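A brief tutorial aside. Many learners find it easier to grasp structure tokens once they have seen a single protein encoded end to end. The record that follows does exactly this for Sugar ABC transporter substrate-binding protein. Read the sequence first, then the structure, and try to relate runs of similar tokens to stretches of the chain.
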Amino acid sequence: MKRHSVRIAVIATAAILAAGVLSSCSSAAPTGGSTAASTGSKTIRVTLANHVWTDAIKAKLPEFEKETGLKVELSQYGEDQLSAQYNVKLNAGTNEIDVMMYRPLQEGKLFAKDGYLANLSTDVKSDPAWGWSDFQSGPVGSTTYKDKVVGVPIITEQEVLYYRKDLLAKAGLKVPKTMAELEQAAKAIKAQNPGVAGFVARTAKNAAVTQYSSFLYSFGGDFIGKSGKSAIASDAAKKAYAYYGGLIRNYGPANVSTDMSWPEAMAIFTQGNAGLYTEADSLYKNATDPAKSKVADTVGFAPMPAGPGGSKAYNVPSWALGINAASDNQSNAWKFVKWATSKKLTLAVQQAGVPSARTSVWANKAGTATYPADLAAAIAASTKNGIGHDRPLVIKVPESRDIVGDPLVVAITGGDSNAAADQASTAFQKLLDAEK
């Protein structure tokens, strides 16, 4: 099978491994990667990323082992090291990984196309009580490849509107529900509060793509059309580019830079220098923690304002669990995945601060008790019509983000974003054609 993955230099990978980035956390003795340990083995080798979700799962592992009689050999890495492991081991056809935590939007298409992920279509429907139908459609769409389920979403993220209650009250305005109202509010806040931006958001062409995506969808567009062709030069996309760029150019911070990712944009908001801000819900504590935010006591949350296409925020799985197609222990691997994504454990993990892809958890008061009430309501609204991707679903994700993000920078700086969209669409189509 031809491998399409970007190769990580062997020397670099060896250095990573030699540095001891691997940490094993298991009550089982190391197997040393022997075939005997994976063929019908009671030891399940699970590879996870450093994450709050992983910490919560690790604390529950003794329960799983007691219930099933199985042992979990857990390997845990930082994101870069995890990618290095996968690029080398999966490309070599390893059977030394059974369960793998992966990023559906970053490497999901690559892994599925290269045959690294086992087909879970039968497994997810085998137990109605476990409830595959309970998972939200957006995340499920991103863990499905050519009508085959290849992963179970475990952590989700949506874009919401952060706003200053005091500044909206001062302007005599209600929380914006439409894009027109958002612009009106941004204009009023900037006019009434010298030195305060009406609106702030990410501006760096790569980093801004994910947050721009909700504007794109709400204007009725997408990155790739139903025909599989580039759609970033569509009328809807051009209007979304112009609108997003115009908000920042006309009502954003003075002398705004075009290299802001979320830390820079969040800092402007939390230091009291902006009234409206669209960003991922997962970052909300930066705005509500008094130790981090000067405006913590006046921050509110709302769903993405509606555009011509409605209110359509992204609702994406930032991480999912998959099973290595080359594993000899897939049956037991599924038992782990099923347990780790069960309704009971998902509720416990969400209570620890990790947003879930299960609808039932958001409908459960116990599942939303640790969230601000208006944020929980905004998330619930976003999951109903949410789009399951916040960037182009391609193999060369970083390259695609640079391409589709370029018209954003042009719009922010007052250039011809329509012409930039046409040019970017040509480049994006070449990328799509090369991946066929």
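Self-check: Residues 417-434 form the longest helix (18 residues). If you spotted this yourself, you are ready for the next section.
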